């Protein structure tokens, strides 16, 4: 078993090419215990590719991936998820024709135990996400904001040690964003779970993340606290300057 | 698993069995056999549709079941029930190997592989002299004592297997299949072995298809490669689409309707293949949830007006 303060995830020279395009180039970063790490960058910076690499959906062209201290380079999505790294997808990360209850129940399929324990876990997860009134509803019929929460619910029902969320705030209104950020903080503080957050909503990322990794053209540009990133000249040139152009 | 609607199942099965007791006409008996076997084949096809795949290899597994039973009876002289069971077991085992290789593909790719497999297996029978070549196998008889009761027996076995598939569908395993159909990637990220689940679904459906083939062999006493072309799967698809794929009763209703109408169309000297093709097109255009869906909506409208 790894020590308590060791990183949950480490990449060493992680690289992925698609033909002539280098989507992610020689990337080194780590995710520490009990932190919310933001992964940001302009469109095409390699965020989604990085996400797919660490969750096993893509095999790296070069470099190494360590999850919970074990070398997971080239491991399948199944093997990685069973170790306790669970991800969501940017679009429709839920089962539309199933009830919210069954959606979250699916998240408990591995490693939670049997019937009663799983139902307890569903109730607990729904309560935390504010989904209890909607448990019997068909997931595909819910408003967009609630569907996003269901996606997080499925992933978090397994109580992973590292939860990776791909743009969970897209299309949410201000109240829903604030609500989701509170959920992320509770996941970190009450369950000791780290969160990797890929997100375009800068204000939200700056307010909730403990540290931020910035990608640009597939390369690592900067790592630091929100305050450090805000003050980083390279980042402002590459990215924040366009977005926070006031 | 809580609400299996058991009273309805017992009533439906009892009704079907009672109907077979009344059959004493050889032609009607053959139609009843056809309906029961068609319903079981369609239920097998629909079970794989639960995970979102159209399984044209259903036809191959019906054929494998029939030929396994035929070989067990005519070559190995196995007892009746053992030969019947062998059809399901062989189809199931072959489907596990076939599924392990092919279930990594999806959609049209999986459909086409199933289609090709069906035709390849059919050609294999016609080239194999041990299995009777193009003329097939003859003399696959059930025990003499059972001969008069074959419609009842076939109906009972079909009902039992369709019920078995229904129990699986309503269990946690059924929910996993729905999850795979809805969103395979999410199912994978929660630690589900998708391929294993797909193979399990495929194997259960193929066992049922294999038994349908065994029943076909015993009902007809004669089998030939031509009985097991891809048309078997196309017909099963027609039963599912006409009856309605949303619930397990759909394929049964579709089989009853189309086999009766199809037998009639055959009597007219019409091309039954055109008839079945037309039925699929009509059902998809006019009855998106099949006859059972229409009945459900009609019932809902009536009870709404009553209030």
TrEMBL record, chain A:
<dbReference type="InterPro" id="IPR051120">
    <property type="entry name" value="ABC_AA/LPS_Transport"/>
</dbReference>
<dbReference type="Pfam" id="PF00005">
    <property type="entry name" value="ABC_tran"/>
</dbReference>
<feature type="domain" description="ABC transporter">
    <location>
        <begin position="9"/>
        <end position="242"/>
    </location>
</feature>
<dbReference type="GO" id="GO:0005886">
    <property type="term" value="C:plasma membrane"/>
</dbReference>
<protein>
    <submittedName>
        <fullName>Amino acid/amide ABC transporter ATP-binding protein 1, HAAT family</fullName>
    </submittedName>
</protein>
<keyword id="KW-0813">Transport</keyword>
<dbReference type="InterPro" id="IPR032823">
    <property type="entry name" value="BCA_ABC_TP_C"/>
</dbReference>
<dbReference type="InterPro" id="IPR003593">
    <property type="entry name" value="AAA+_ATPase"/>
</dbReference>
<keyword id="KW-0547">Nucleotide-binding</keyword>
<keyword id="KW-0067">ATP-binding</keyword>
<dbReference type="InterPro" id="IPR003439">
    <property type="entry name" value="ABC_transporter-like_ATP-bd"/>
</dbReference>
<dbReference type="GO" id="GO:0005524">
    <property type="term" value="F:ATP binding"/>
</dbReference>
<dbReference type="Pfam" id="PF12399">
    <property type="entry name" value="BCA_ABC_TP_C"/>
</dbReference>
<dbReference type="GO" id="GO:0016887">
    <property type="term" value="F:ATP hydrolysis activity"/>
</dbReference>
<dbReference type="InterPro" id="IPR027417">
    <property type="entry name" value="P-loop_NTPase"/>
</dbReference>
TrEMBL record, chain B:
<feature type="transmembrane region" description="Helical">
    <location>
        <begin position="189"/>
        <end position="212"/>
    </location>
</feature>
<feature type="transmembrane region" description="Helical">
    <location>
        <begin position="28"/>
        <end position="49"/>
    </location>
</feature>
<feature type="transmembrane region" description="Helical">
    <location>
        <begin position="56"/>
        <end position="76"/>
    </location>
</feature>
<feature type="transmembrane region" description="Helical">
    <location>
        <begin position="148"/>
        <end position="168"/>
    </location>
</feature>
<feature type="transmembrane region" description="Helical">
    <location>
        <begin position="218"/>
        <end position="240"/>
    </location>
</feature>
<feature type="transmembrane region" description="Helical">
    <location>
        <begin position="247"/>
        <end position="267"/>
    </location>
</feature>
<keyword id="KW-1133">Transmembrane helix</keyword>
<dbReference type="InterPro" id="IPR043428">
    <property type="entry name" value="LivM-like"/>
</dbReference>
<protein>
    <submittedName>
        <fullName>Amino acid/amide ABC transporter membrane protein 2, HAAT family</fullName>
    </submittedName>
</protein>
<keyword id="KW-0472">Membrane</keyword>
<feature type="transmembrane region" description="Helical">
    <location>
        <begin position="273"/>
        <end position="295"/>
    </location>
</feature>
<dbReference type="InterPro" id="IPR001851">
    <property type="entry name" value="ABC_transp_permease"/>
</dbReference>
<dbReference type="GO" id="GO:0005886">
    <property type="term" value="C:plasma membrane"/>
</dbReference>
<feature type="transmembrane region" description="Helical">
    <location>
        <begin position="109"/>
        <end position="128"/>
    </location>
</feature>
<dbReference type="GO" id="GO:0015658">
    <property type="term" value="F:branched-chain amino acid transmembrane transporter activity"/>
</dbReference>
<feature type="transmembrane region" description="Helical">
    <location>
        <begin position="82"/>
        <end position="102"/>
    </location>
</feature>
<keyword id="KW-0812">Transmembrane</keyword>
<dbReference type="Pfam" id="PF02653">
    <property type="entry name" value="BPD_transp_2"/>
</dbReference>
<keyword id="KW-1003">Cell membrane</keyword>
């Amino acid at each position: 078993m790894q020590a308590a303060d060791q990183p949950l995830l480490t990449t060493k020279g992680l690289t992925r090419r698609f033909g002539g395009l280098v989507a992610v180039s020689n990337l080194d970063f780590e995710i520490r215990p009990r932190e919310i790490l933001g992964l940001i960058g302009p469109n095409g910076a390699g965020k989604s590719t990085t996400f797919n690499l660490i969750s096993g959906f893509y095999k790296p062209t070069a470099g190494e991936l360590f999850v919970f201290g074990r070398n997971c380079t080239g491991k399948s999505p199944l093997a990685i998820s069973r170790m306790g790294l669970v991800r969501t997808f940017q679009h429709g990360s839920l089962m539309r024709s199933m009830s919210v209850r069954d959606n979250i129940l699916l998240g408990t399929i591995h490693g939670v135990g049997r019937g009663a324990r799983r139902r307890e876990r569903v109730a607990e997860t729904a309560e935390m996400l504010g989904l209890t009134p909607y448990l019997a509803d068909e997931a595909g019929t819910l408003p967009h904001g609630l569907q996003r929460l269901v996606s997080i619910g499925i992933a978090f029902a397994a109580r992973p040690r590292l939860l990776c969320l791909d743009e969970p705030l897209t299309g949410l209104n201000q109240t829903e964003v604030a609500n989701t950020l509170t959920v992320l903080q509770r996941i970190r503080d009450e369950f000791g779970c780290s969160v990797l957050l890929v997100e375009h909503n800068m204000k939200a990322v700056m307010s909730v993340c403990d540290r931020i990794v910035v990608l640009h053209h597939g390369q690592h540009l900067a790592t630091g606290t929100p305050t450090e990133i805000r003050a980083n000249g390279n980042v402002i040139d590459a990215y924040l300057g366009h977005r926070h152009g006031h | 698993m809580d609400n299996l609607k058991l009273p309805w199942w017992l009533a439906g099965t009892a009704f079907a069995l009672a109907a077979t007791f009344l059959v004493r006409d050889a032609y009607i008996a053959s139609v009843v056999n056809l309906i029961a076997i068609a319903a079981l084949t369609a239920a097998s096809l629909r079970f794989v549709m639960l995970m979102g795949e159209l399984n044209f290899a259903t036809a191959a597994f019906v054929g494998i079941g029939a030929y396994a039973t035929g070989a067990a009876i005519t070559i190995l002289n196995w007892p009746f029930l053992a030969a019947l069971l062998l059809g399901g077991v062989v189809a199931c085992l072959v489907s596990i190997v076939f599924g392990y290789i092919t279930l990594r593909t999806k959609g049209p790719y999986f459909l086409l592989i199933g289609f090709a497999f069906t035709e390849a297996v059919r050609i294999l029978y016609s080239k194999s002299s041990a299995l009777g070549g193009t003329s097939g196998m003859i003399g696959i008889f059930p025990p003499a004592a059972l001969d008069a009761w074959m419609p009842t027996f076939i109906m009972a076995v079909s009902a039992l297997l369709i019920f078995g598939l229904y129990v699986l569908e309503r269990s946690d395993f059924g929910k996993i299949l729905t999850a795979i159909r809805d969103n395979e990637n999410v199912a994978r990220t929660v630690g589900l072995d998708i391929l294993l689940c797909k193979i399990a679904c495929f194997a259960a459906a193929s066992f049922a298809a294999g038994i349908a083939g065994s029943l076909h062999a015993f009902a007809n006493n004669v089998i030939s490669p031509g009985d097991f072309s891809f048309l078997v799967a196309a017909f099963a698809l027609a039963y599912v689409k006409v009856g309605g794929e949303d619930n397990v009763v759909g394929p049964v209703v579709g089989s009853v309707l189309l086999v009766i109408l199809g037998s009639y169309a055959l009597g007219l000297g019409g091309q039954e293949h055109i008839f079945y093709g037309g039925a699929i097109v009509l059902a998809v255009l006019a009855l998106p949830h099949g006859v059972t869906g229409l009945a459900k909506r009609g019932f809902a409208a009536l009870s709404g007006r009553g209030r």
